Amino acid sequence: MASVSAEERHREIMELVRLQGYVSNEDLAQRLNVAVQTIRRDVNALARQGLVARHHGGAGLASSVENIAYAERQVLNRNAKEAIGQIAARAIPDNSSLFISIGTTTEAFARALRQHRSLRVITNNLHVASTLSSRTDFQVIVTGGQVRFSDGGITGSTASSSIDQYRTDFAVIGISGIEEDGTLLDFDADEINIAQAMMRNARKVFLLADQGKFGRRPMGRLGHLSNIHGFFTDRPPSARIRQVLQDNKVQLHVAQEAGSKPD
């Protein structure tokens, strides 16, 4: 690929950030056929204009209050999400009970569960419920609450109180952003409350997040990596995040290392 002008690079960087949520400087340099130092200057220029958010090692979405639309999230990093779903499903034994939260990666996880036997699933995600309801040996329970037209998520205080009526073997949750210190972030207060209810009512918590979640900064705090037991992703996280995981004895599972081919 021939080198392109700064203006063309800026447009490409903004488009990639919009689609993926976060892109590392190394990936941008490879895609645009320029040096990493050039990309850093480009990202700094875009950040000064408020067009992207500059993070250590890459560029992310400028907004901390609005998530990418559901239809776009369905196709973002699709191969990575499917790979994450596959390795996370392998960690769930047959005859288990589990919560499954809202999210496109948890939906990929649900698709991978269809090879299991005799699961009991409680979810606030209509897409997850529909995916698993065809299995006659599964028991699928949908929380009460208000259904969101945008993504089939069920939210509100009724959903949270529904979760509190159960105690499961696993909670499998998604996330919108992970900071370098291990803080878990999301956009929607209702989603945060329900995910927190799942976490406190499960014996083990599994977090599923693709590479696009690293460095994103939604303003709602869901918890911390120390609150989970297993972290499933598609590429090795930064050294700092790996240290947080190690310090808190959180098992790291990387789909790429398991033989998958994520985006």
TrEMBL record:
GO molecular function, one term: DNA binding
InterPro entries assigned to the protein according to its UniProt record, in alphabetical order: Carb_Metab_HTH_regulators, DeoR-like_C, DeoR_HTH, NagB/RpiA_transferase-like, Tscrpt_reg_HTH_DeoR_CS, WH-like_DNA-bd_sf, WH_DNA-bd_sf
PROSITE patterns for this protein: HTH_DEOR_1 (PS00894), HTH_DEOR_2 (PS51000)
Keyword Repressor belongs to the record: yes
Sequence ranges assigned to domain HTH deoR-type in this UniProt record: 6-61
One Pfam family from the record: DeoRC
Keyword Repressor: yes
This protein's UniProt keywords: DNA-binding, Repressor, Transcription, Transcription regulation
PANTHER family on file: GLYCEROL-3-PHOSPHATE REGULON REPRESSOR, HTH-TYPE TRANSCRIPTIONAL REGULATOR SRLR-RELATED
Name the record gives this protein: DeoR/GlpR family DNA-binding transcription regulator
